[in-house]
Design a protein that fits this description.
heterodimer; A: 552 residues; alpha/beta; five-stranded mixed β-sheet; 14 strands; 41% helix; globular; B: 325 residues; mainly alpha; two-stranded antiparallel sheet; 2 strands
Chain lengths: 552, 325
């Protein structure tokens, strides 16, 4: 080959073309290879196509080296017969002298989920004293609600045991259980009946433990229970000048006690909000969560819909279209958004943190808030006019609505998080996880968690503990945790897609991007139906033209 | 196209080399040594490029033909072009793309004009004391990570706790929820992007002005050309390549804007500021719909390739012009 030959234009073209063909062939080959690798993944059971929501996760739960850590067909022999079963936790002998590395995942900016790290030294002592092993300082990774799943899902998808035990949101149970990423809690309960504590109500079980909904199969262990309520400025309510002015303006007495507020109707409550709007230090009447972030808007809106007879889907058939976009829900959405009239201009981005800031800084008379952050609804360093001590506020359950039967009714949204155990733990890590749960549910540990770190009780025994009765937000919390007063939403594996769509639609309506609440609900319902249908989880197809729907 | 046999042109140079060496075989014999050495030097970069760029891209391409959501437990299911078909009729996505192009056009145009103006001011202020400090301050926004800028501006613009609204209220103006209002959110993000990136265009303008030969400028001075004549006949012919490059780099960069918007508005209110990169992030890392988001990523890749091709074309245009001269 000579330079002259290779430099001829024709030769260059030929070579370039050959080169392109080779490149194209190489790309095609790698593309085929990647497609084949992807196809190779399909050799496992396609549990997502199990629209009936059967126990597909349990079939694939045996994914850890530990063998028994997942659900491999039941918990097996009792711990007396087989004390080395990792799901029994440690025996007095099988962990002696060992040193175990341990880590967990938690929600950042959510104080109840950082308590385990702060309390960890006590567990280290417990493990050493009872089982003779040393466990490392607790490593952790944290992210806000909306991002934590992104953090843990890739590690679990790759079979990592980076997070041996995880605090997760209740909606994630399906997404974690279906791929076999977490240990089935029932297997742990079978071997450790002492961990199977009687809950305060069935809401605890259905929210933090069960997947698929209604199946009775438990995957989670309650960590932090949570329900919704309202924080009010008690010092403003108690001010005789405000009471007189209220009487003069409305002809009614201003309610000031918990008992008066426990059964207050939403319309009456809004009258009080309107009265205080701009009355004291130019503060707003109320603050609610309309943020597009995570589930903030949805959870704040749900009580308006649920309590008046609205549903968000049919969990049996997984039908959303025609259920979410109902007249009741549209009216409830309109009502919920209309309350922005009494709120700061930031209403569209308000989330949990904003409720804390606005209320403690004295910018608002009331705040619709998760009761689990009650410990942070005062701030000793708040400026004058703010909430410096818990005596300045009154925590109440959500106000009631007229239910479908005409009776006062309230159904709030459930908050809170369960623990779940990583199915990819090795045997020793699984033992430590179970030991940790045994320690976590000890009454003295719960006392520390609840009294020092802002936790809340979720068991019958805990709720009756006299030591907790002085917690100023316990009463409304337990009221909302009673049977039928709250409900959780989808535990579907596709929850994240469904939620993102819904949040966007609701936010579009709240901010005036679209003016019809039904249009927002139809958009969300159609897209959610499409997601469920495409995932093979619903036999109900989305309505025609779903793809062309926009929020304009 | 210029004459390729002109002195200095690539072909003429090769011809001379060929003549000097006399025999093409001699070159062929020597070539492998050089080639192996060159390839040896390239290997680390190539390995990195293939592992970190080519393989993920091809993997993404493969994934775009599958129905696969990370959280749904189902294995990837081959669905051919379904994702692309769905994409073609996905109204919100096309709105997002349209919004991104609108954002791109306005942002790049405003930043170019402002940047050119600021750059020209600095060019003419060579002897003014404090110029270096002013230049450093000017470039600071560009050096701050967009995440920090987004958060910083979100706080500044906050209607309850923010400084800007506080000042407005002191001046008797009505508070504006910049990041929360459907009318204001898009301009607010545009403003912050302009605040961040106008210095870049100013820098490019300074570089462009610096590339104008001093002699030409002095000649223009002697000829008493007006400002506009100097701009059109002297400055633009020399500086235009650098400015065009700046515009193209910004265009490509704006197309990828995600972090700033995510922090400032999270794509809201509604979807009013959801640029396509934010939508892609939501689909891939919030919804975990990996198949569909891969299809969208492929589409965006094609658009990025088109933009990059223009960039390369402009670069080559300059090389060709220089070769001709």
């Amino acid at each position: 080959m000579t330079l002259g030959t290779t430099q001829s234009p024709a030769g260059q073209r030929t070579r370039r073309w050959k080169g392109r063909r080779q490149t194209a062939a190489a790309i095609a080959a790698v593309g085929m290879a990647s497609a084949m690798i992807l196809a190779g993944c399909t050799s496992g059971g396609d549990s997502a196509s199990d629209s009936g929501g059967s126990d597909s996760a349990s079939d694939s739960g045996d994914s850890a080296d530990s063998g028994d850590s997942g659900d491999s067909g039941g918990a097996g022999a009792s711990c007396e017969e087989d004390p080395d079963n990792p799901l029994c936790g440690s025996s007095p002998t099988n962990m002696q002298g060992k040193t175990i590395e341990f880590g967990y995942s938690r929600i950042s900016g959510w104080p109840p989920s950082s308590a385990p790290e702060l309390m960890w030294p006590q567990f280290q002592e417990y493990a050493q004293e009872n089982y003779g092993y040393e466990v490392s300082d607790l490593s952790f990774a944290e992210a806000p609600f909306g991002e934590l799943f992104q953090k843990i899902a890739p590690t679990l998808a790759s079979g990592s045991s980076e997070f041996n035990i995880m605090i997760v949101d209740s909606q994630w149970l399906g997404a974690l259980a279906e791929p076999g990423w977490i240990v089935k809690a029932d297997n742990v309960f079978d071997l450790n009946p002492d961990l199977d504590i009687e809950p305060y109500s069935s809401l605890v079980t259905s929210t933090y433990q069960v997947y698929p909904d209604g199946s009775g199969q438990r995957w989670g262990f309650p960590q932090m229970p949570d329900t919704q309520g309202v924080f009010l400025r008690k010092d403003w309510l108690d001010d005789p000048a405000n009471q007189e002015a209220f009487k003069a303006e409305t002809g009614k007495d201003l309610p000031t006690t918990y008992e008066e507020y426990e059964n207050i109707m939403m319309d009456d409550f809004i009258e009080i909000v309107a009265f205080f709007n701009g009355r004291v230090n130019d503060a707003f009447g109320t603050a609610m969560m309309y943020s597009k972030e995570y589930d903030f808007f949805s959870c704040a809106y749900y009580p308006f819909a649920y309590s008046q007879g609205g549903e968000i889907w049919d969990p049996e058939t997984r039908t959303v279209w025609g259920v979410l976009n109902s007249d009741v829900n549209a009216a409830a959405l309109e009502e919920f958004v209309s309350l922005k009239e009494f709120q700061p201009e930031t209403f569209a981005t308000q989330g949990i943190g904003d409720m804390i800031d606005l209320f403690t800084q004295g910018k608002t008379f009331s705040a619709f808030q998760w009761l689990a952050v009650g410990a942070f609804m005062h701030n000793p360093e708040a400026p004058e006019g703010g909430v410096q001590s818990p005596d300045q506020y009154l925590a109440i359950p959500l106000p009631k609505f007229e239910g479908p039967d005409g009776e006062p009714n309230i159904i709030g949204a459930m908050g809170g998080q369960p623990w779940v155990i990583n199915a990819f733990n090795d045997e020793d890590q699984t033992r430590v996880a179970v030991d940790f749960l045994k320690w976590w549910y000890l009454p003295e540990t719960q006392d520390t968690f609840i009294l020092e770190y802002g936790g809340l009780p979720w068991s019958k025994e805990g709720a009756a503990n006299p030591a907790y009765q002085d917690i100023p937000y316990l009463k409304p919390f337990l009221y909302m945790l009673s049977e039928g007063r709250s409900q959780d939403f989808w535990h579907e594996p596709d929850y994240s897609q469904m939620l993102a769509i819904q949040q966007e639609a609701f936010s579009a309506y709240a901010t005036g991007q679209i003016s019809d609440p039904m249009a927002a609900l139809e958009y969300a319902a159609a897209k959610q139906q499409e997601i469920l249908y495409n995932a093979g989880r619903s036999e109900t197809p989305p309505p025609d033209g779903t793809g062309e729907l926009t929020l304009q | 196209m210029g004459d390729s046999t002109k002195p200095g042109s690539g072909t003429a140079l090769l011809d001379r080399q060929e003549a000097a060496l006399g025999d093409g075989l001699t070159i062929a014999a020597k070539k492998p040594k050089k080639t192996w050495w060159s390839w040896g030097l390239l290997v680390p970069v190539l390995v990195f490029f293939i592992l970190m760029n080519v393989v993920p891209t091809i993997w993404m391409l493969g994934l775009s033909f599958y129905n696969f959501t990370l959280t749904s437990a189902g294995s990837p299911r081959f669905i051919g072009l379904d994702n692309y078909e769905q994409l073609a009729s996905d109204g919100p996505i096309w709105l997002s793309i349209g919004r991104t192009f609108t954002f791109m056009l306005i942002a790049v145009a405003v930043q170019t004009v402002l940047g050119a103006f600021v750059g020209y001011l600095f060019w003419r202020s060579g002897k003014i004391p404090g110029r270096r400090l002013a230049l450093t301050l000017l470039f600071t926004p560009m050096l701050i990570t967009p995440l920090a800028s987004g958060l910083f501006w979100r706080l500044l613009l906050d209607p309850v706790f923010g400084l800007i609204n506080y000042v407005m209220s002191v001046l008797g103006l009505e508070k504006i929820p910049f990041a929360q209002d459907p009318t204001w959110a898009f301009p607010a993000v545009l403003f912050v992007d302009t605040w961040m990136w106008t210095p870049f265009m100013a820098l490019m303008t300074l570089a462009a002005l610096g590339s104008v030969p001093k002699a030409e400028l002095e000649a223009a001075e002697v000829d008493k050309l007006s400002f506009w004549q100097r701009l059109i006949h002297v400055i633009i012919p020399y500086g235009k390549f650098i400015i065009i490059l700046g515009i193209l780099l910004r265009t490509i960069d704006v197309f990828k804007t995600m972090d700033l918007v995510y922090l400032m508005t999270n794509g809201g209110p509604g979807d009013r500021t959801e640029l396509i990169a934010v939508a892609l992030y939501r689909l891939a890392f919030k919804s975990f719909n990996l198949g569909y988001s891969s299809a969208l990523a492929v589409l965006l890749l094609l658009i990025a390739i088109a933009l990059t091709s223009i960039y390369l074309f402009v670069l080559n245009l300059r090389t060709r012009r220089e070769a001709q001269n």
